[in-house]
């Protein structure tokens, strides 16, 4: 069992500082529940790749595992929490969630140390 911390309480800290703070407190797992601070609804960019490398290096250096919480509150739709869902009747909207999950899986943890927390949400009209 690993003792980790959900980063809601560190939402206003720089991510690399938050990783150091968690490791300094003796925690062994970083759980990003802030809408995946780096992985967003936009396509990957050079900046994204550079930041992912920095985070991966910081986690590895401090011996922290990483779990990405994928609820993405308001990240994919600023008007509706956790929207769109995998249960959306519109295939294009489901594809937005699938793309986000795919990038979240590849995000920051050293190989073999990533976890992904899937959030169940209700199906509701978002339009």
Give your account of this protein's structure:
The chain is an alpha/beta fold and 127 residues long. It has one domain (4-117). The protein has helices at 15-24, 46-62, 91-105, and strands at residues 4-6, 29-32, 65-69, 114-117. It has a four-stranded parallel β-sheet, with helices on one face. The longest helix has 17 residues, at 46-62. It is elongated and about 45 Å long. The mean pLDDT is 76.
What's the arrangement of secondary structure elements?
Layout: E1 4-6, H1 15-24, E2 29-32, H2 46-62, E3 65-69, H3 91-105, E4 114-117
Parallel strand pairs: 1-2, 2-3, 3-4
Helix pairs in contact: 1-2
Please, how many helices? Answer: 3
Shape designation: elongated
Gyration radius from CA atoms, angstroms: 15 Å
Which ranges are low-confidence, i.e. pLDDT below 50, for 5 or more consecutive residues? none
**Major beta sheet, specifics?**
4 strands, parallel
Describe the strand arrangement of the main beta sheet, using strand numbers. 1-2-3-4
Return the string of H and E elements: EHEHEHE
Secondary structure: number of strands = 4
Q: Mean pLDDT, as a whole number?
A: 76
Q: Per DSSP, what share of the residues sits in E-state strands of 2 or more residues?
A: 5-15%
Query: What is the domain tally?
Result: 1
- Give the end-to-end Cα distance, rounded to a whole number of Å: 42 Å
Q: Estimate percent helicity.
A: 25-40%
Structural class: alpha/beta
